[in-house]
Amino acid sequence: MRTHKIPKTVGTHKIPKTVGTHKIPKTVGTHKIPKVVPPTVQIVGAFNSGTNVVIKLIKSLFNVTLHPEGHTLFWKHTRPTLELVTKQPKKVLYIVVVKHPLFWFHSIHKKPYAMSTAKLASELSTIAYIKQSVALLNETYYDFVDYYNQFYNSCRANLPSEQTVFINYTDLLTQPMNVIEQLSACLPYHTRICTDQKAIAKVITTVLARPAKSHGQPRYGGEAARWYAAANLSKLFNVPDSQWINERLDQNLIRFLGY
């Protein structure tokens, strides 16, 4: 029996190499088919502000290009100076994670991580510790209140307001669905991995019930249960210490952050 080669063309038309499994053409007529590129999201926040749990929630609920560690943009804990921000891509959604200053001072004393004063944390009270000068990422701050003021004032002043959303970490723990709705309003609908409210609630519970880091604590319980209610913040510092902190905090910034 003779075997015939299938011709590569019939008339002036090429015969496709496959039948049934055709590749999607790159053009329709003379128009290119646009690629759906997930929006780019940059997480920004001070150390111990809750950036890791926000990253996990976004990865679980949204299909976005996430740059939490700054491999393409900048590291999430870097203070966003105007010079740094102007070098970034134009179409970026900045998500700034903020923790109440009183609780942030408490947590940065408990887990100082990369702070230059980390060795002093076990030797000093919280108020004595946050009064220390701190060097961080090649910058030196008068004390931890100065760091908090400068970091979030830089976010407020230098990140484009129409592309920036501030997430209150206390709200994330106490009213997580409201925060997810806030994020959903900032991202295209097609980026949502799931839209069912029960499925979203299950994801939130799963993420928040686990430590944000391998050495951390669950978000529902322990530290969170004791301190994240606003009424408990007054218990962190005595009256004179709270007064000293409030005098040092930028009150315009505090009002802007909603505290």
Helices and strands in order:
Layout: E1 9-10, E2 13-14, E3 27-28, E4 31-32, E5 40-45, H1 51-61, E6 65-66, H2 82-85, E7 92-98, H3 101-110, H4 126-130, E8 134-136, E9 139-141, H5 144-158, E10 164-168, H6 169-174, H7 176-184, H8 197-208, H9 223-227, H10 239-248, H11 251-257
Parallel strand pairs: 5-6, 5-7, 7-10
Antiparallel strand pairs: 1-2, 3-4, 8-9
Helix pairs in contact: 1-8
Structural overview:
With 259 residues, the chain is α/β, with parallel strands linked by helices. It has one domain: Rossmann fold, CATH 3.40.50. It is 36% helix and 13% strand. The chain has a 4-stranded parallel beta sheet. It has a two-stranded antiparallel ribbon with strand order 1-2. α1 packs antiparallel against α8. The longest helix is centred in the middle third of the chain and has 15 residues, at 144-158. The N and C termini lie far apart (87 Å). Residues 15-19 and 218-223 have low confidence and may be disordered.
